[in-house]
Amino acid sequence: MLRSASNAIRPVALTTLLGDDTPVRASERPASSSGIEQMLSGGDPRSLHGVDQVIAAVLADSSALEALFECLFCDDSVVRMRAGDALEKIARIRPELLAPFTRRLLSDVVDIDQPSIQWHLAQILTEIELTPQQRPRAIAILKRNLERYEDWIVLNLTLHALAQFARDDPELHRELIPILRRHQADTRKSVTKRATKLLAQLQQAP
Question: What is the pTM of this model?
């Protein structure tokens, strides 16, 4: 699994980010949840407004992670996208924090029909620790998303995630070769380039 760290995000208290007039107590889950959602709301819909602040809040107080996770299921698709981005970055910095949510990542999150959630899920699955029972489920989800979505980012990141899993999975390694060859014929250059690069890496692997 990949591991990376970031020095750009400094942990701060959630109450500091929300302001003194918005108290958030650990015993008040709804208030915490609405506070995280508030931080991720507004701004340019194409931006990652509030993501860095939310990551800092979670790194300072991991109990806020549940509220962030619940934002994946809110009514606002922009907030859902930003929540997915924040979770993916937290998975790279502190993958162990997502351990309590692995089951839901492999069940509830799979059912969110939103490309940006699914491409972040692909990234998260390569970062967190999976049991021998969970790993086949993760691979099956990634394979399904290749068939289910036409979004170029979903395809790129899902192919990359499958290639990561294939490094120590001979059977998946064999299965992935024809999948990558098929995506080499994609009309979008980014997908073609990613498939070609991953195919070359797999073929060079011992």
Answer: 0.82
